[in-house]
Amino acid sequence: MSSRLLINRSIKSVGFGNSAARRFNSSVSSLKVQSQAAKQALLQGVSQNRSTTLSKKASLRYNSPEGLDQVFPFAYEIIQTRSKSLYLQASELEKQIAQETNANQVQALKQQREALLVEAEINNPEVQYNFQMNQINMEVPVYRHLAKQKWSKYEMIKMIQRFETLHVIPDTLPTINPEVEVNVQFPNFVNKWVENGEILSTKVTSRAPIFKIQEFNEIPQGQKYTILVIDPDTPDIKNNSFSTSLLWGLTDIEVSLNNPLVHFDSRQLIDYVPPVPEKNTPTHRYVVWVFRQNIDSPPIQSNSIEDGVQRNRFDIRAFVKQHNLQPVGGHVWRNAWDRFTEEVRQDYGLPAGRVFSKERNSVRL
Amino acid sequence: MNKFGLSNFVRPSIFRSHCLGSIKTPTSVSTFVRFARTSAKKKNRGELSASQVRQKNLLSAVSGARKVPRKLDMCVEDLIRHNTVTRAWALYQKEIRDKRAQNLERQYRMIDEACDALKSAGDRNLYNKATKREFGKRFPMELRVPTDTPPKIVWQYEWSPEEKEKK
């Protein structure tokens, strides 16, 4: 688990917009730099205070850019004044929200207020420093905004690219519009978040993975998630094609902004069966789909997936339609037959694997 | 510019840090010319030997990136401070820009209102006098302000001058 999460636990989540006019750095602890030395170096300059990010040797020969220390106080003043006026606007919106009765209007006003709160703090040097040092609290709008920006500039694009090149979309679901960051880790591969599309050993994937679902918007009360792990590359000899099988199903998952890890005791739709690709079949894709459940829908019954029947020939599109699920994120890893596969089969009491012919038949499998 | 018509943009530090570590850097860089050859006979004291010059020239031809002014290397705190200053400057400029635009908009609105008032005053003479086209004027009121790109609406087909409407 990253150090960020540990730090987040210690920071109490703070309600927003309760007080009236506020400059930044006033009451929210996560908007301040915690270390006093770092704060002094940041706000007064590194020429008087030693930089906490440079080594002792490096700071001896380091010189700040000319004039920066002189001009910074003026810039800081401008940004603080602006922040103050933005907080005033936000508190006015707060009053409007309290009076408003129309639910849609309230939603729109809340979004406006959140945008104002982000704008009020985004230029705060302390916020920028905390974000760089990963000392963030995702309950605070500005950190959520920065985190989403960072994710959507690289990780999100990479994930979509992997989903497209591996044809996860449209082979499993028609398309994806990612809204949450999904990370996968295996207990046999400690402290290594699996990259999208990575080919793993079956030994590594022999135990159930750990998921992280990071939301970037405020999570409504009672929001739950469902995770499905599927293999769309199961050979289907009868039809000379491939079918989808379900490896694992979790439902009624609850995560919070600062605790994105999926709890181990989440309700299971179906037990985890590790990937055991057959020998000489092409590399299998193992796709993790994360869905937002509809708040009003009844919980998914685990007997709707009967073991042995639904695990094979699982129709994910029908399942999603039936339970009114909204796909919000995903992940994909790959496995091929390797020297550990038979061992994993034995551990789980699975039948012996088949060996496919290396020669391609005239009829394509 | 030097006598060969080349500008001296080579940084002296090029030769200090690279493979010519033991060689003393020439104090004046302005004497260095790209691709210039120095014969061994003309060698003076304190100057580089022919082979060293060859190496130097070779390096300067190869490592073009080293001639580019060095990036500002800042520590994390200073980079954030620098960004803060840049943002504050941009915000300050925006404030001025917005104020100016607001002022212009207000002026235009007042002119518009005044013209409307004159139009509805009954006597059209005042209005006609106020909005009379001044031919030969260098900057007439209706002059389109030059822009870098063409307008979104390229031609207003509906518009016609009032004189034509009367006819």
From TrEMBL, chain A:
<dbReference type="GO" id="GO:0005762">
    <property type="term" value="C:mitochondrial large ribosomal subunit"/>
</dbReference>
<protein>
    <recommendedName>
        <fullName>Large ribosomal subunit protein mL38</fullName>
    </recommendedName>
</protein>
<dbReference type="GO" id="GO:0003735">
    <property type="term" value="F:structural constituent of ribosome"/>
</dbReference>
<dbReference type="Pfam" id="PF01161">
    <property type="entry name" value="PBP"/>
</dbReference>
<comment type="similarity">
    <text>Belongs to the phosphatidylethanolamine-binding protein family. Mitochondrion-specific ribosomal protein mL38 subfamily.</text>
</comment>
<dbReference type="InterPro" id="IPR035810">
    <property type="entry name" value="PEBP_euk"/>
</dbReference>
<dbReference type="InterPro" id="IPR036610">
    <property type="entry name" value="PEBP-like_sf"/>
</dbReference>
<comment type="function">
    <text>Component of the mitochondrial ribosome (mitoribosome), a dedicated translation machinery responsible for the synthesis of mitochondrial genome-encoded proteins, including at least some of the essential transmembrane subunits of the mitochondrial respiratory chain. The mitoribosomes are attached to the mitochondrial inner membrane and translation products are cotranslationally integrated into the membrane.</text>
</comment>
<keyword id="KW-0496">Mitochondrion</keyword>
<dbReference type="InterPro" id="IPR008914">
    <property type="entry name" value="PEBP"/>
</dbReference>
<dbReference type="GO" id="GO:0033617">
    <property type="term" value="P:mitochondrial respiratory chain complex IV assembly"/>
</dbReference>
UniProtKB/TrEMBL annotation, chain B:
<keyword id="KW-0496">Mitochondrion</keyword>
<dbReference type="GO" id="GO:1990904">
    <property type="term" value="C:ribonucleoprotein complex"/>
</dbReference>
<comment type="similarity">
    <text>Belongs to the mitochondrion-specific ribosomal protein mL40 family.</text>
</comment>
<dbReference type="GO" id="GO:0005840">
    <property type="term" value="C:ribosome"/>
</dbReference>
<dbReference type="Pfam" id="PF09812">
    <property type="entry name" value="MRP-L28"/>
</dbReference>
<dbReference type="GO" id="GO:0005739">
    <property type="term" value="C:mitochondrion"/>
</dbReference>
<dbReference type="GO" id="GO:0003735">
    <property type="term" value="F:structural constituent of ribosome"/>
</dbReference>
<protein>
    <recommendedName>
        <fullName>Large ribosomal subunit protein mL40</fullName>
    </recommendedName>
</protein>
<dbReference type="InterPro" id="IPR019192">
    <property type="entry name" value="Ribosomal_mL40"/>
</dbReference>
<dbReference type="GO" id="GO:0032543">
    <property type="term" value="P:mitochondrial translation"/>
</dbReference>
<dbReference type="InterPro" id="IPR042831">
    <property type="entry name" value="Ribosomal_mL40_fung"/>
</dbReference>
<keyword id="KW-0689">Ribosomal protein</keyword>
<keyword id="KW-0687">Ribonucleoprotein</keyword>
<keyword id="KW-0809">Transit peptide</keyword>
